[in-house]
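BTB domain-containing protein
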Amino acid sequence: MSLRLYTIDPEGDVILIAEPQQGGLRVDLIEASPENLTAITKRNKPAARVSSTILVSASPLFYLRQSLRHTNRPRDDPFVVPTLDTTALFIFLDIIHGQSSKIPDSVNFGRLFALAVIARHYGCVKAVKGYAVPWINKLKDEVPVKYSYLIGKWIYIAGVFKQASLYQETTRNAVRHSIGVDIFPAEFPNDLGLLIEWVRNNTIGVLVKHLQDRIDSLLVPDNDAHGCHHCGVMMLGCLLRHLHSQGLYPLPTHPFPGISMEDLLVALASMPAVSCGAKLTCGCKSERPVMPEAEDIVRRIDGEMVGYRLGGVGF
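Tokens:
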């Protein structure tokens, strides 16, 4: 589509101009007079001919645009759309103008995110959702597991378009794989980001305490829970060596920078077993797990970390 003048409604009474600036696209409306139509084609700014009636009926922000035209704009300018994707904006305008034949069958991930931002900004999620769901389904193989800025954008898309299973999957991945670095987009609900990091810190703290408790128990020489003294020494050495190989010893401390819940769960799930081989009567000829409770801990955390449901915090 043209970046000069894109015709959405040939009989449209206004021209929507999208001017890139810091923070997004500043949207302005001018009369679609012959003079303006001629002038706009000579300007290097994305613009579209649209119907003001449709714009105003679709979103109160377009009505506000007219009513506050000659007043000082508030600090959070409602006429700046928080995206620089003009093509996504024009697709959105096609949707609310009922131009279904112009709507693409698929979009890439970046454009899908931009459309989610635009739809939420203008309060037109229901109008866009019918197109967004098939787009999402075609991109589901791209949903990341590892922690990156992409996971925050996928959570946002799932939340805006009310995709419950995708929202639960992506929030679960974010909690499990967060390393304490804020990778959420500016449009991300602040309370959800805070919740994800609170759960991460709290759960990692619990897991680290389990590890410290096990280390402390192995340091007690008369504790027969781990067999003979030789078994206890070997278990302690094996446990510390295993944690060190996973980058977890010395044990991490709050706020656990660079460490994810998944790191600790993997370390717990792969705990080794040892036998001192001493020819004693303590029964320690058979292998003993260095942390017998590890399997139960992993199972419990796995059962708790199921992601979040729509309608709660965030969306």
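Residues 104-188 form one domain.
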